[in-house]
Each structure stands twice: as C-alpha cells, then as structure tokens.
Amino acid sequence: MPSPDSLAPVNPQKLRSGFARVWHAAGFSLAGLKAGWGETAFRQEAIAAIVLLPAAFWLGRSWVEVALLAGTVLIVMAVELLNTAIETCIDRIGPEWHALSKRAKDMGSAAVLLSLLLCAGVWAAALSQRFLA
Known about the structure:
Elements: H1 4-7, H2 18-37, H3 40-59, H4 63-93, H5 99-131
Helix pairs in contact: 3-4, 4-5
C-alpha cells in the first residue's frame, strides 16, 4: 500500500482553485518578470517599452493602431522571456556542448529576431504613415 506522502501531488498549485490559484499564479508571474529583469536583453527591451508604450498612444490614430504598436512591443518582451526560459532549461541539463542544445538556443534566438523585425516593421509603417503621408 502506498504511503500518504507518495500520493501527494508533486505541485501543490494543482490543488488550488479559484482566487487562490489566480493569486499564486500571479506571484509566479511576478517572479518570472523579476528573473527576466536579471537578463540584459530583457532589461533593455523593458526600458525601451517604457518609452514605446506611451508613444504608441501618441502615434496610433485608432485603437487598432495603438494595439498593434503596443502589442508588438509586448510580443518582443514575451518572446525574450521564452528564449531565456529555453536557454535556462538547456543550461540546467548540462554545460557541455551538444548539437541539439545549440539548435534549441539558436531557434529561440531566431524567434527573438523575428519578433524584433515585426516590431520594427510595424513601427516604421506607423511612423511613415504619420509623418510622410
């Protein structure tokens, strides 16, 4: 017969429901943002967001434009956090070089590049529409 300890869930978060689950999940999210702040690239993107998010409200002429401008900035930050999570998981497995580890890290980096290109393209289009049209 299994002991009561062996029947306990590995993650106590799975037992929570309602507001308690949301409250604890918010705490985990804040811890993730704090961990992200320790990464130079995320910190640079967050500082840029402090400028770009208010600028989105000034530059956008409709709620759709504001949403696109602000959304692309937030997408860059989210993809950067995911890239950092991938890199952290790979580094936890081991520090030795492996082709699959390199591939995973390279694809995470490529995802960040694509999100940055999307953001730059949307902002360039909005700026040209506003000042060159």
